[in-house]
Write the structure tokens for this entry.
Amino acid sequence: MPSATRAAVILPLRPSAGGAEETAGRSAQARLDEGIGLVRAIDLEVAATAIVPLSGYRPATLIGSGKVAALAQEIEEKGIGLVVVDHPLTAVQQRNLEKAWKAKVIDRTGLILEIFGERARTREGILQVELAHLNYQKGRLVRSWTHLERQRGGFGFLGGPGETQIEADRRMIRERIRRIEQELKRVSGTRRLQRLRRRRSDLPTVALVGYTNAGKSTLFNRLTESETRAEDRLFATLDPTLRRLRLPAGGQAVLSDTVGFVSDLPTELVAAFRATLEEVVEADLILHVRDIAHPDTAAQAHDVERVLGQLGVKADDPHRIVEVWNKVDLLPPALRPNGTAGAASETEHATVSALTGEGIGELLQTIDRQLAKGQGTYRVELSGSDIAQLHRLYEFGEVLERQDRDDGSIAALTRVNPRSVNRFLQVFPQATSTKGE
């Protein structure tokens, strides 16, 4: 069995406007550790790491020539075949570093695309990753790549040289992007129809979001008593998984597990996975799962909120967002959060351990309460002759109270999802709203 490729992880510290080291609210070591985790997520052996402070950007190599030379020696000595630079690289910088280090060089975006490419399983996921990768590559076809300057084609009678290789590559990429986008539109249409069918079932929808490895899939399994893939790996979940969720008051909802977010998530991926992330946009309630034991939990939360903002979701919406502070079992009792772990002041939160089950009952109560906020309640009287319609009450929503009378009639108090009210009143025109009682 061939040995794993030896890799190096290089973290350049970006200079901020004030001259201080800028690591998106994280310590430099935490940022480096995350880069190492990303590399190990595709089973590479991390043989060397380095944190490189930058006094300024070098257009040709990003980092200074002295450090480039020093790293070149270490890379050669340790037999490193791949260098991951945890910072955006231009095509020119990537090419120059590859020449200097005699190894393959990729930046953070390229690494995340590689991970997604390895994780994708469904046809939709594979197409989304390919689209993101093509959009990434499209911007990297520049004329400084001399091996793409080969001439081909032309016959000489059109007044100029033939089509250059780089122009042909760009054209082929554009054509492939167009075909993938068309296919993803069809997939998106299918997913939209599936959501419409779920809406007709009158079940509210709940979506899990969070930083990668925050424990979303473990929580999904705990809440739905299912066994979907849950690993201690970054981006273990790419394709959305949906299951029915039973609520404490007797009602039900549809719960979806979605792809994890990460700091500096490539915009190409956010755009490519938009069809999948529509599960989040359309959800009645969003559970923002946080690894509350992680030292950078607040910075991770801000990264998730940033992506939610790109999707048009207000991260501090008290009616749609519940923060779930997960992995509380990893904290000693004295350090457990007391309600001030960085949640927006108006946002509901629940403290849980998806692994041990601690706090899950309270979380379900919170979900039930939040979903109930947007729902109206109606009193319905059913005579003995209308008793056949009783099952429809349970289909439309949650029956909060039911009184079976001696004369065979039934009086019920039912909670109904707002989007189902019109159809509910068509079936039960005798229903009366309890609003104002």
